């Protein structure tokens, strides 16, 4: 299968689903069997999955150590990973490893233990991220939570399972002007 054929067909592939498997560490994925759905997963000649979606929701993960390595063992084209579901785990931060998957368009992180709203900043480098969930994390209680996320990630179209409207964007822009101080431009003394 050519790379182009792969890009055209794998979006239709069912996810590699490790949800509800009591997984504590990412390395467990190599010995755990994924859940089977209505449609069978297709595999490459090397035995790796051809999917672009990885579901790890409803487990007990508290970090993503070795995530890239393990994903490369499971997926034929890990660079094309478009959907990662890490909802309902014990993650306390957004691991920078997630920002290495540039084709990521859907990221579910709801129902975790993410404490700092600033963690969202890491996701700004993902050019194709369109759908993000963070509700059910302690950061949801922070004042300006939705506005902060929409300012930081202006390309997302769905946040916490609700569409982002023009009014949401306008509100976020006003919030940003009122709450985020612009970086001061320093003028060199010699230039005056």
From TrEMBL:
Protein location: Cytoplasm
Cellular compartments per GO CC: cytoplasm
Keywords of the record: Cytoplasm, Leucine-rich repeat, Repeat
InterPro entries the record matches: Leu-rich_rpt (IPR001611), LRR_dom_sf (IPR032675)
Domain of life of the source: Eukaryota
PANTHER family: LEUCINE-RICH REPEAT-CONTAINING PROTEIN 51 (PTHR46545)
Protein name in UniProt: Leucine-rich repeat-containing protein 51
């Amino acid at each position: 299968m050519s790379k182009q054929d792969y890009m055209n067909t794998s979006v239709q592939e069912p996810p590699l689903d490790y949800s509800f498997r009591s997984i504590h560490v990412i390395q467990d994925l190599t010995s755990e069997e994924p859940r089977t759905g209505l449609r069978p997963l297709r595999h490459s000649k090397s035995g790796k999955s051809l999917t672009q979606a990885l579901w790890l929701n409803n487990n007990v993960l508290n970090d993503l150590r070795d995530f890239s390595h393990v994903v490369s063992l499971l997926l034929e084209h890990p660079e094309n990973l478009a959907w990662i579901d890490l909802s309902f785990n014990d993650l306390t931060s957004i691991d920078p490893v997630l920002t290495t998957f540039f084709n990521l368009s859907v990221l579910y992180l709801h129902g975790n233990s993410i404490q700092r709203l600033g963690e969202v900043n890491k996701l700004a480098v993902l050019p194709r991220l369109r759908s993000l969930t963070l509700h059910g994390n302690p950061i949801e209680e922070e004042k300006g939570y939705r506005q902060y996320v929409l300012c930081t990630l202006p390309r997302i179209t769905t946040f916490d399972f609700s569409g982002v409207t023009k009014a949401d964007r306008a509100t976020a822009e006003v919030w940003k002007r009122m709450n985020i101080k612009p970086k001061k431009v320093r003028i060199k003394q010699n230039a005056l």
